[in-house]
Amino acid sequence: MGSLQDLSDKLGEFKNHIEDISKMVIPIIPDKNGMIDRQCPKSECESLFKIHREDWLKIVREEEVFCPFCKNNSEAKSYLTVEQNNEVISDLKKSIREFWNYTYSQTGQNISIKPREEFELNLKCVKCNCRYSVVDSAYFCPSCGNNNIEENAKKAVEKILSNTNNIEKIQETLETNLNKDEATVITKSIIKNSISEIIGTLQNYSELRYNSISSKTAPFNAFQNVEKSNKLWFTLFGTGYDDWLTKTELENLYKYTQKRHLIEHKAGIVDQKYITKTGDINYQEGERIIIKPNDVVCLGKIVIKLLNEISMLKKGSI
Length: 318
Prior knowledge:
Blueprint: H1 4-23, E1 35-39, E2 48-52, H2 53-58, E3 65-66, E4 73-74, H3 82-102, E5 121-124, E6 131-134, H4 149-165, H5 167-175, H6 180-213, H7 226-237, H8 241-244, H9 247-265, H10 272-278, H11 293-311
Antiparallel strand pairs: 1-2, 2-6, 3-4, 5-6
Protein name: Zinc ribbon domain-containing protein
Organism: Cellulophaga geojensis KL-A
């Protein structure tokens, strides 16, 4: 049995080892594009995204990283994914046991977390040049927090359209791990949510563009409303949706914004107000709105057309 002095010496060595561990940099394996997996630490979000490993080391600040989706800002160390965090904790526990028992450990050397597959939507901040990658509509640079929607909006809508066009393949893939009913529920949810995402992208892009051009701030969520949007652009430039869209496109845009309202606020249940406003004879009051892939494609093409028109508006153009 060792003496009290031996125990004291061992505790001292153990304390030094713990301090050394706290200073170690744990290696994270990048994907084929050089991107490392990150996850928002905010419990209400927890969205996954990727940042180029080189930019994570050279551009991103340790004291503050922004979530591209919700703009939560936390310390860089908080952005480990659940899988990475669990692996690190497991490795640290093993290291502590090894050092206490054998005065030797290999902290971090045995961590091998495979990265997730590459995300298709690759972005680059126009302000700080940080490269990041997402799977959904994302607006904020993880490094500086800059709102990059002016550059990313069209890509986001195009990605939604790509997913919609491949929805049958997505369902087939889901069916390999889930039953057919569960896969169908998920794919239907993807299609339904796509309407809200596309209109949300138009709202955020339009608001940012309008506020950067106009001397007045746009009313809250005005660009989710076709009449208000049209009036704001026409008042500012003498041109608007009536000029940018065909009559059929404008009618469809109005109908989809109303459908989105029902989905968001009425659980998709049709009311008399919707029928009166849209003249949609395909539904009766009390029925539920059905969104199909063709609806998403139709709306997406209209919104991309609007994004292109709005992007060309500049101060002094009237």
